[in-house]
Design goal:
single chain; mainly alpha; Arc Repressor Mutant, subunit A; Tetracycline Repressor, domain 2; 2 domains; globular
């Protein structure tokens, strides 16, 4: 990486850090773009060159997330199913408690408590459906356009969001992936 690229990356990071700090201090809706630009010591034009919308300021690791997601399928242990690998990835990344990491916990609460961020995060996350479906097809020996691969990818990406509203999101994710792994008829029923 050359000097210019390093400077751009440092500016981008300074903007993201300033935005997150302000959002955590005062709440997402209470912070304006100009305030973030001032805190990062950049113009609003520069801010928008790096982040096209306000929500993007909170999510600046999208490419890395996709790489880790695809690696969860490609690099899974021998004998582990694709749904099991995706379940473990979801539990480790999307519902992680990050034991003792107060920054991660605060970030998670910020996103979960802000409808605009929650919706943006899900739309951003679902953009990985096509890439994940392709890797599922490759790893399972199915055709690249097989709708089963696309369905599994979509459902696997959607499962954590469906679990957020439950008292025990971790258990809800496990049950959702049990459905993906074993099908509806094999799913154990909870007593009412």
């Amino acid at each position: 990486m050359g000097r210019r690229e390093r400077k751009k990356a440092a500016t981008r990071q300074a903007i993201a850090d300033a935005a997150l700090r302000l959002f955590l201090e005062r709440g997402y809706d209470a912070v304006g773009i100009r305030e973030i630009a001032e805190a990062a010591d950049v113009s609003t034009t520069t801010l928008f060159k790096h982040f096209p919308v306000k929500e993007a300021l909170v999510f600046d690791e999208d490419a890395d997330q996709e790489s880790r997601l695809l690696a969860a399928v490609r690099d899974r242990p021998e004998g582990q199913s694709i749904p099991a690998a995706l379940r473990e990835h979801a539990l480790a990344t999307r519902l992680a408690s990050a034991d003792g990491d107060t920054g991660f916990t605060a970030f998670t609460h910020l996103v979960a408590g802000t409808p605009a961020l929650r919706d943006y995060a899900q739309k951003m996350w679902l953009r990985h459906t096509t890439a994940l479906a392709q890797v599922i097809a490759e790893e399972s020996g199915l055709a690249a356009g097989d709708p089963v691969c696309t369905a599994l990818a979509h459902f696997a990406l959607e499962a954590p969001r469906a679990a957020y509203a439950h008292n025990n999101p971790r258990q809800a994710v496990i049950r959702a992936f049990d459905l993906l792994e074993h099908g509806w008829s094999a799913l154990p029923r909870e007593e009412a």
